[in-house]
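Letters spell out the chain; the tokens describe the backbone. To illustrate:

===
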Amino acid sequence: MAASGTRDLYEIRRYRVRIGAQRDAARAYFGEALVPALGRLGLAPVGVFDAFVGEGPLSVVLIRHPSADSVLTLGSRLLADAAYRTAGAPFLTAPAECPQFERVESSLLRAFEGFPTLVVPDTSAPRLFELRRYEGPTDTASLKKIELFDTGGELPIFKKVGFRPVFFGQTIVGARMPNFEYMLAFSDMAEREAAWGRFRTDPDWKVLSQQPDYQDARIMSNNMTLLLTPQSSSQI
């Protein structure tokens, strides 16, 4: 948990894997090596997901960090863990002719001021996740879009219509910047569609979205959506 007055840092890893042996190997690595090791380092809960809409085949890992030092030292701390090295050996030391993944793309995000820490949904219930990335045409425009969520009034509307946010974070290092990402939790597709329907017709949202400074045509150039299901090892 982030200390009082601080904001989480989120590391999002996108593992690109081929369906079949690579995907099975990645799932085994996450469940048997990575997630337990991150827990020993005090970085639980860890999210581990499969994308089924948006990009694929793709596995997404969400790691919450309490500080920049945690991000910078994670690799060395993992490799200092003998149990991690042993459990992860098939994945970590796979021969070049039989790689366990294609590529890993990572990004680092800082939690929004208005949503400073991760919120974990009920993991005993069915759940589906939506990971959205909003790209801005300029740094200034992207910050204005963040403002819309953070202090401009969109976050309260999200909660009013029944969205269950997991995190919101501005991308500090990553691809396709400037951008930010956020994650929502649902029980199933029907709940997701109903919540988005309520949002689109919400009177407060209609007023807010028409304010000149907050119109998407001015402050957003692209958005990307992934729909995710949690793997068995996921703690989110």
In short: Residues 21-40 form the longest helix (20 residues). The radius of gyration is 18 Å. DSSP finds eight helices and eight strands in the chain.
